[in-house]
Write a structure and sequence with these properties.
The chain is α/β, with parallel strands linked by helices and 348 residues long. It contains 13 helices and 10 strands. It has a single domain, classed as Phenylalanine Hydroxylase (Orthogonal Bundle), CATH 1.10.800.10. Strands 8-7-10-9 form a 4-stranded mixed sheet. Helix 7 crosses helix 9.
């Protein structure tokens, strides 16, 4: 997302995600997903986790499969770019993104993901970003990420296709890829994780700034997210956040979004007394990788029950990273955390 010299304060804007900004909180409630002991069923959510004071939650029907999750509720960063976006004045770029977005809306889960013929400028953008990031991976990324990258065999002259990485995930962790047009509503995105489905963009960032993007794009998804999702312990950890979201109130969805932010996007793990990155917002940003290793930052153990810090994506690099001792530990920790949401629903 940033080079060591340019775009100094942009450090993984792609990780803006999923998590969304405060402006997305105005979004209307939408259906989520439900999983019950003994299999999927249609239920009505009453509450999630500990009761919330003065929180009047409207009952929601929870769909029973990934087919019932709406992947079209885009809260931002689709083809309608803001004026500060690198591609705002490039009509050809915006038209291409609009076309790619239309493909995502028409794809039914389980169907093959359309293969795109990436243009020369898109291939060059991929090559430049991959080349810069690979310089830091050996010393900054965790072992699980490095092992996965070896298996995925990223090449500078070939932009990976979502269908190909989808098949790798199916063989390793059982996760699936579902294309999405842009920044998906947090509830819908997190609910998808409960069914081991990762909603991924398919368009490329603007070629004028290959090391920076203010939104999720193919480079962020492929380099940042896909490798770690091949690890079964990590994939289980991610799924637990999704399972908790099934029964979360709208207010709790915001907390879960922060838990996602400080693990899946900006999480770090201890490896032989060294801090190594596993979060996609770090792994897909040269500047964030360097800051994580050498910058002025705070490290703290992950506690999903605690109030999480404000998500920071417009005022420089992360000021605080939450640390796991292992992915086995992270999986068990978030399994215990999600259990309170599931138990509360069934006891209600």
């Amino acid at each position: 997302m940033v080079t060591s010299t340019g775009a100094k304060r942009a450090r993984g804007g792609a990780a803006q995600m999923r998590a969304t900004s405060h402006t997305t909180r105005r979004a209307a409630r939408r259906p989520g997903l439900g999983l019950a002991a003994g299999g999927p069923r249609r239920v009505v959510v009453r509450r999630a986790a500990p009761p919330l004071e003065n929180d009047q939650e409207v009952a929601r029907q929870i769909p029973k499969s990934i087919h019932d999750i709406d992947n079209g509720k885009i809260l931002g960063f689709d083809a309608n770019l803001s004026e500060d976006h690198p591609g705002f004045h490039d009509e050809d770029y915006k038209q291409r993104r609009s076309w790619i977005a239309s493909l995502a809306r028409d794809i039914v889960p389980g169907d093959p993901i359309p293969r795109l013929e990436y243009r020369p400028e898109e291939q060059e953008t991929w090559a430049k970003a991959l080349g810069e990031l690979e310089k830091l991976f050996p010393t900054h990324a965790c072992k699980e990420f490095l092992d996965a990258v070896d298996r995925l065999d990223f090449r500078p002259d070939v932009v990976p296709q979502l269908q190909d990485v989808h098949e790798v995930l199916q063989e390793t962790s059982g996760f699936a890829i579902r294309p999405v047009a842009g920044l998906l509503h947090p509830r819908d995105f997190l609910n998808g994780l409960a069914f081991k489905t990762f909603h991924s963009t398919q368009y490329m960032r603007h070629f004028s700034q290959p090391m920076y993007t203010p939104e999720p794009d193919l480079i962020h998804e492929i380099i940042g997210h896909i490798p770690m999702l091949t690890n079964k312990y990590y994939a289980d950890m991610v799924q637990q956040i999704g399972l908790a979201s099934l029964y979360a109130t709208d207010k709790e969805i915001w907390h879960l979004t922060k838990v996602y932010w400080y693990t899946v996007e900006f999480g770090v793990v201890m490896e032989e007394e060294e801090v190594k990155a596993f979060g996609a917002g770090i792994l897909s940003s040269y500047g964030e990788l360097d800051h994580m290793k050498t910058g002025d930052r705070e490290l703290a153990p992950l506690d999903p029950w605690a109030k999480q810090p404000k998500m920071s994506y417009k005022d420089g690099f992360q000021k605080k990273y939450f640390v796991l001792s292992s992915f086995e530990e992270g999986s068990e920790l978030l399994r215990r955390y999600s259990k309170q949401y599931i138990d509360r629903e069934h006891q209600g």
